[in-house]
Amino acid sequence: NAGVTQTPKFQVLKTGQSMTLQCAQDMNHEYMSWYRQDPGMGLRLIHYSVGAGITDQGEVPNGYNVSRSTTEDFPLRLLSAAPSQTSVYFCASSPLPGTGPKEQFFGPGTRLTVL
Amino acid sequence: SQQGEEDPQALSIQEGENATMNCSYKTSINNLQWYRQNSGRGLVHLILIRSNEREKHSGRLRVTLDTSKKSSSLLITASRAADTASYFCATDDSPTDKLIFGTGTRLQVFP
After folding, report:
1. pLDDT tens-digit map of B57-107
2. Interface residue B107 vs chain A (CB under 8 A)
3. Which member of A33, A56, A107 has the closest CB to residue B99?
């Protein structure tokens, strides 16, 4: 199993550009999520999904869109990139929580710089 | 706002010493998890403790949970240089299933 994969590893954008960060998992996990990590801020939840066709907002959803058309894929779209979106983005997945989320498996991250 | 906050923000110790990190959270939880992040890498799950548990062990790791104080601690015994990493606690945002991370503790273990 490849686990959770993310592409690209690095990306530089200009302000106003749009792009999609890809995330895929091959563990048949229903729960997937996107976090951003900024220095001194820990990880902040952007969006999450509990299954195909179901998404919801996290702590910092503004400026980002997600969709979940399949169990395996959970792309994150930046609609119009801003310098404030410069960050490291992590995708994670886990089995569907019963009484609370279970162990999350993280991808290696995408380092995004917006100029 | 973030659910969990770790204390201290940074910790430096010598190999062989014990390292203790604390996590405080704000609302009721179903479980609490601890993760490790090596520099430049994704997070790796260490241990999960349920709200009805008070203590859990895994190898050199010992986690305690005090739901009355809304706090947890992670103890790493006999630390090694390879334990150098950032450590995060994470709690589920009951009644939703969101997992919310704290700000982390940066641990440096000197050989």
Report:
1. 999 999 999 999 999 999 999 999 999 999 999 988 765 667 788 889 999
2. no
3. A33
